Amino acid sequence: MPLIVHGGRLQGITYRSPVASAQVKSAALLAGLNAEGDTVVIEPERSRDHTERMVAAFGGAIDSVEIDGASHPRVRRSVLTGTRVYVPADPSSAAFPLAAALIVGGSEVVVEDVLINPLRTGLYETLLEMGAQLSFEERRDPAGEPIANLVARTSELIGVAPPAKRAPSMIDEFPILSVLAAFADGETRITGAEELRVKESDRITLMVDGLRSCGVEVEELPDGLIVHGRGPKGVRGGGEIRTAGDHRVAMSFLVLGLAAKEPVMVDEGEMIATSFPGFADMMRALGARIEEA
Question: Among 10, 83, 122, 143, which residue's beta carbon has the most beta carbons within 10 A?
Answer without folding.
Answer: 122
